[in-house]
Design the sequence.
């Protein structure tokens, strides 16, 4: 099997493997031995050789390139988050066999087994990044006219931080020097650059390659600036079945009910019930 899907993690700095990836054992069920993966480690952690080997052993990976990431301190809503994501992509691109790149957080879980997700992505004509023209105060209202002429308000887009891109789009993100200075200087809180930089960049560069939706499910029904976090009591068969099914979207320009491949945010105490239901509900 080709190494065509690479999972990348990105979150604020913590200090142990368990807190970096509390759902690690769920992913242990997800990966298969013939799937080669780079360290599931944010680029802004200092990844020691021991830590990388421990992660690789947990994932039962047979062969892997070990990367040593430099420390990258990040701050929510600042360009440092995009810097960390670009460095993750840059390191992943060094392996020419990597073709699809997924950014997930440590609170994400897979909703389907590896084969389903692999086939879904490698057969897709598009990459999965939301890039919406939000004309309200939290969309176009964050635009700064000083970003002209490189970025016009008609091109301004908003999307989720969690995305999937193919190799061509990953290269476009990493090599950008034209738009980066404008976002770094003129998109600062209350303009949250991680919600706007990549969606706007790819809308300008490669709009025909975007599905304009995310593959990571979240629940915004409780209100507030962040999606709901689910705890142990929330994890039931009915809940997991509901977030896997009952959606409507397009896949390769055809109607589909499979719209989300991952879900968040799951607290560390959800691990035991997730492991209980994963073989039956998630088919892991």
Sequence:
């Amino acid at each position: 099997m080709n190494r065509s899907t690479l999972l990348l993690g990105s979150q604020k700095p913590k200090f142990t493997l368990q807190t970096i990836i509390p759902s690690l054992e769920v992913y242990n069920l997800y990966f298969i031995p013939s799937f080669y993966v780079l360290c599931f480690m944010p680029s802004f952690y200092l990844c020691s050789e021991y830590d990388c080997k421990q992660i690789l052993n947990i994932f039962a990976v047979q062969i892997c390139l070990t990367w040593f990431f430099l420390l990258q301190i990040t701050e929510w809503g600042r360009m440092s988050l995009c810097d960390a994501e670009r460095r993750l992509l840059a390191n992943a691109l060094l392996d020419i066999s990597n073709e699809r790149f997924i950014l997930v957080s440590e609170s994400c879980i897979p909703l389907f087994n590896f084969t389903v997700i692999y086939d879904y992505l490698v057969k897709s004509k598009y990459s999965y990044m939301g890039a919406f023209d939000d004309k309200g105060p939290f969309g176009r209202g964050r635009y700064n006219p000083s970003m002209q002429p490189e970025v016009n308000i008609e091109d301004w887009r908003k999307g989720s931080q969690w995305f999937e891109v193919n190799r061509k789009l990953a290269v476009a993100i990493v090599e950008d020097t034209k738009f980066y200075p404008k976002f770094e200087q003129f998109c600062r809180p209350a303009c949250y650059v991680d919600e706007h930089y990549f969606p706007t960049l790819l809308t300008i560069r490669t709009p025909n390659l975007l599905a304009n939706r995310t593959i990571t499910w979240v629940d915004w029904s409780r209100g507030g600036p962040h999606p709901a976090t689910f705890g142990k009591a929330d994890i039931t068969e009915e809940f997991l079945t509901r977030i896997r099914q009952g959606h409507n979207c397009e896949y390769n320009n055809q109607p589909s009910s499979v719209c989300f491949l991952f879900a968040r945010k799951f607290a560390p105490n959800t691990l035991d019930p997730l492991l209980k239901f994963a073989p039956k509900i998630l088919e892991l």
